[in-house]
Amino acid sequence: MGPVKIADNIYWVGAVDWNIRDFHGYSTYEGSTYNAYLILDEKITLIDTVKEHLYEQFIGNIKQIIDPKKIDILISNHTEMDHSGSIPRLMHLIGKDKPIYCSKMGKKNLSLHFGDKFYFIPVGDGDKLSIGKRELMFIETRMLHWPDSMFTYIPEEKILFSSDAFGEHYATSKRFDYEVDKDELFKQAKKYFANILYPYSNLILKLVEKIQKLKLEFNMICPDHGVIWTKNIPDIVSRYVEWSKQEQKSRALVVYDTMWHSTEIMAEEIVKEIAKEQIDVKLMSLKSCHRSDVITEVLDSGAVLIGSPTLNNNIFPTVSDFLTYMKGLRPQNKIGAAFGSYGWSGEAPKVIEKLLEEMKFDIVSPALRIQYVPNAQGLDMCRDLGKQVAARLKQLK
Ligand code: FEO
User: Fold this and answer.
1) Do 230 and 257 lie in a common domain?
2) How far apart are CA 319 and CA 355, in angstroms?
3) What pLDDT score was predicted for residue 397?
4) Total domains, the chain
5) Measuring from each residue's beta carbon to the nearest atom of ligand 1, which residues come in under 6 Å?
6) pLDDT over threshold 90, residue 33
């Protein structure tokens, strides 16, 4: 992809990663982009870089606009290497003495990645930097989602460079929100939120409040992944607020794996009963569904039921994988329950229940365990669990 002019003298010069399908454990079926932005002013300024292996695409884009050696300033909004990976090669080309503006934690973290050989200049929340006609403002966004994260804002054009916030892993030849399918865009934005920003929901709500108090206006929000927000800014901001509030929803999600179909039979019976009670419910097998898709459904579900057979006195590996992932993403305000078939010891449902309790899930019913294959009585117990979950969710309607 070539460079794209996004405003007068401001260009997208990032890279499109069409073929990436795994982003540190997150399934990126639609690829991704790493966005970098070039501002032509008295001081030519570059915001962020790209993953190291896409350096040639990125530098090729800059070269179509200016000689990269003319860049005066680099701003690093975030240290993670999908945005900083090309810094060493870039600085070698443009001059190691050129300043790299970053947050205080950015200076520390960039030094821990690349050593002290670059001229890092730390900036704080609200600090300003004149680059000529424009005076950039920095907004510290610590832990959204790394300690070093920050935003850069151009008041003159009302453009926010929002680092990972408002991003999507979505490779496309288009650069703006109004050019792509809206449903697909919001689907990818939600998945991104669920897999990257979910644990920091409270910080997002505080940040939105702070930005409202500052009375900042936005013509454009330029994230480091996916497309640039223009026409859909109010919509994506209100969705971030909605997702961050984590209000309970009257919807159930049943997640499971199975060895000899007994836990699967249980899961299906529970789902049938919940549906019979007119509650929206979704069934996801961890053999078929990726953890990052399941967690996206968790975001929309008031109840999450987890089923696992007992294998070697413990939970099934895929279930363990998912629970570890979900624990790290810290969903709030969930009703939960555990279930599973077992042969002789039956630890799995109890282990799951304990983990759900540690995650502060409200356990709706004691772990349901059925030996070997569910019989008529066992199926009754599954239906009873489904009924209890449905009854709790109906209270939310
Ligand atoms: Fe896109 Fe936190 O890096």
Assistant:
1) no
2) 11
3) 79
4) 2
5) 78, 80, 82-83, 145-146, 164, 224-225
6) yes
